[in-house]
């Protein structure tokens, strides 16, 4: 293996402004000791569990792949290595099954890493006027939050800052955000990276919540910024034959066609639990992505403090793929109708298609 050939791959990547992700598959300890700038560390044995940290499918990616080979090894030797064969299998899997464009694989001999990085520094083209190697554990963020959240966050932050600056008893930077059914936490981490120092990420799955907690130090997010909470967000069973039972906009209703007394108590208990997670008994931002449990809609309305925002986007009829069940699909104009009342001003509403042609609704609204 010719180190200069491998290093040239890195130079080409840097000269292209690091436009796509370079994923360092070495161990966490090796990455911390020294790594190439703007790279993302996902140890090879953790890649299957951390696939959610890759960028969206269809994007270009590349790899720094650890192998073991002595200094006298030739290209023939490299091709015969089991680790080399595994790297090709990984490339083909990501291309064929996940739609990624693998731009290159740069191989680094685990026995001569110091030589590799020294050569990278010494052979630096003078046109590249920057430090190429650094130490530390913080990785480049490759994955993206939901596009609807990304497009709304500037307006939300600007308005919240104005509002909180007018409240002398409240520190301007202290507002509380809730990501409901957060999954693996891409959106919760994005909100925290934006400077929201009190993000509550709620989901029923402890494995997904642990992924969020583990990701915080890797991406330089203070651990106290995101609190992960396991909660059952669906305490009341929805009978598909009676979807109209969960169309109430008020939890206080005693209409037996809506909820039984036991169901009401369970939903009120969930509301109380979610409120208790915030010192102000509510949230300045509530975010829900690709998730629908209709009894949560009035709860969300209750949770938002005056001047706070809701960002909600999920699938709608007609189904073109998953999900298929009506209980998980919004009806035409449903989100807009749910939040069109005296309490909320609708800032933006869309019914559009994702790249895979699944129809989706998006709502951005502010509580008066």
TrEMBL record:
<dbReference type="Pfam" id="PF00581">
    <property type="entry name" value="Rhodanese"/>
</dbReference>
<dbReference type="InterPro" id="IPR041698">
    <property type="entry name" value="Methyltransf_25"/>
</dbReference>
<feature type="domain" description="Methyltransferase">
    <location>
        <begin position="178"/>
        <end position="244"/>
    </location>
</feature>
<protein>
    <recommendedName>
        <fullName>Methyltransferase domain-containing protein</fullName>
    </recommendedName>
</protein>
<feature type="domain" description="Rhodanese">
    <location>
        <begin position="16"/>
        <end position="61"/>
    </location>
</feature>
<dbReference type="InterPro" id="IPR001763">
    <property type="entry name" value="Rhodanese-like_dom"/>
</dbReference>
<dbReference type="Pfam" id="PF13649">
    <property type="entry name" value="Methyltransf_25"/>
</dbReference>
<dbReference type="InterPro" id="IPR036873">
    <property type="entry name" value="Rhodanese-like_dom_sf"/>
</dbReference>
<dbReference type="InterPro" id="IPR029063">
    <property type="entry name" value="SAM-dependent_MTases_sf"/>
</dbReference>
